[in-house]
């Protein structure tokens, strides 16, 4: 898979040299290229942002450096090849395990990391209409980060670990939280009885030492249900999600 990341802080992506993702790059499974947006800003200060039309707080990323950066990325591919463009942002659609699986099917992804109040809206139109890119604005969750870089670290890790050969034990991919709609059961390892140092001794649930595989499977399933109900009731009752009709004001 080819991955291009455009950012004004390329150093933020340095962790992608480490661990399983770093190994996947060295093994040739991932061709990850990080580009500095300022290389495509040609004024004396390499400026990438300016004040928002209409007023308001903060700065907006200028269209020209983004257009050149995206042209550079597109030109690096074979004739007619186009990356899918992912723009991280708190106003995007939720990034889920299902979306990670979907992105893992793509041969080529490009990530555009915005900072400040965001990227001039015309960049999205240009990417879709002039460059022919499928553009997806994607959010990690309902909170605000300073920029897309940390989100890209999370998304690249979630996608890359699904690629064949990146994770040695492919079985560990199926029994995971969010693969089947329930959270994972609690896990334990040796010793069977552990004194924590505060005078309390804690035992591993006896069923796990019983050798009764049927009993272990039902205990684990029950634990998954209880955990999901306690921590993520929305996963068990997806219809409880708000709709536009629940908004206090109609627009
Ligand atoms: Cl993907 N980007 C930014 N800047 N903030 C976020 C986010 C993404 N997801 C949640 N907050």
UniProtKB/TrEMBL annotation:
<comment type="function">
    <text>Specifically methylates guanosine-37 in various tRNAs.</text>
</comment>
<keyword id="KW-0963">Cytoplasm</keyword>
<dbReference type="GO" id="GO:0016747">
    <property type="term" value="F:acyltransferase activity, transferring groups other than amino-acyl groups"/>
</dbReference>
<protein>
    <recommendedName>
        <fullName>tRNA (guanine-N(1)-)-methyltransferase</fullName>
        <ecNumber>2.1.1.228</ecNumber>
    </recommendedName>
</protein>
<comment type="similarity">
    <text>Belongs to the RNA methyltransferase TrmD family.</text>
</comment>
<keyword id="KW-0949">S-adenosyl-L-methionine</keyword>
<feature type="binding site">
    <location>
        <begin position="140"/>
        <end position="145"/>
    </location>
    <ligand>
        <name>S-adenosyl-L-methionine</name>
    </ligand>
</feature>
<dbReference type="GO" id="GO:0002939">
    <property type="term" value="P:tRNA N1-guanine methylation"/>
</dbReference>
<keyword id="KW-0819">tRNA processing</keyword>
<dbReference type="GO" id="GO:0005829">
    <property type="term" value="C:cytosol"/>
</dbReference>
<dbReference type="GO" id="GO:0052906">
    <property type="term" value="F:tRNA (guanine(37)-N1)-methyltransferase activity"/>
</dbReference>
<comment type="subunit">
    <text>Homodimer.</text>
</comment>
<feature type="binding site">
    <location>
        <position position="114"/>
    </location>
    <ligand>
        <name>S-adenosyl-L-methionine</name>
    </ligand>
</feature>
<keyword id="KW-0808">Transferase</keyword>
<keyword id="KW-0489">Methyltransferase</keyword>
């Amino acid at each position: 898979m080819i991955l291009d990341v455009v950012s004004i802080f390329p150093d933020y992506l340095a962790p992608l040299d480490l661990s399983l993702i770093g190994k996947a790059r060295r093994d040739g499974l991932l061709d990850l290229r990080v580009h500095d947006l300022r290389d495509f800003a040609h004024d004396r200060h390499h400026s990438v942002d300016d004040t928002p039309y209409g007023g308001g707080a903060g700065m907006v990323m200028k269209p020209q450096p983004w257009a050149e950066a995206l042209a550079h990325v597109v030109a690096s591919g074979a004739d007619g090849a186009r990356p899918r463009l992912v723009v991280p942002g708190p106003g995007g659609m939720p990034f889920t395990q299902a979306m990670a699986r979907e992105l893992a099917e793509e041969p080529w992804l490009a990530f555009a990391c915005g900072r400040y109040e965001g990227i001039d809206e015309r960049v999205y139109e240009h990417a879709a209409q002039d460059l022919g890119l499928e553009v997806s604005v994607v959010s990690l969750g309902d909170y605000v980060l300073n920029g897309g870089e940390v989100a890209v670290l999370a998304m690249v890790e979630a996608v890359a670990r699904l690629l064949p050969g990146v994770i040695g034990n492919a079985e560990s991919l199926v029994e995971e939280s969010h693969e089947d709609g329930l959270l994972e059961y609690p896990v334990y390892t040796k010793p069977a009885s552990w004194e924590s140092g505060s005078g309390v001794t804690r035992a591993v649930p006896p069923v796990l030492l019983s050798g009764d595989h049927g009993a272990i499977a039902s205990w684990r399933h029950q634990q998954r249900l209880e955990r999901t109900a306690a921590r993520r009731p929305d996963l068990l009752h997806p219809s409880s999600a708000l709709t536009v009709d629940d908004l206090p004001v109609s627009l």
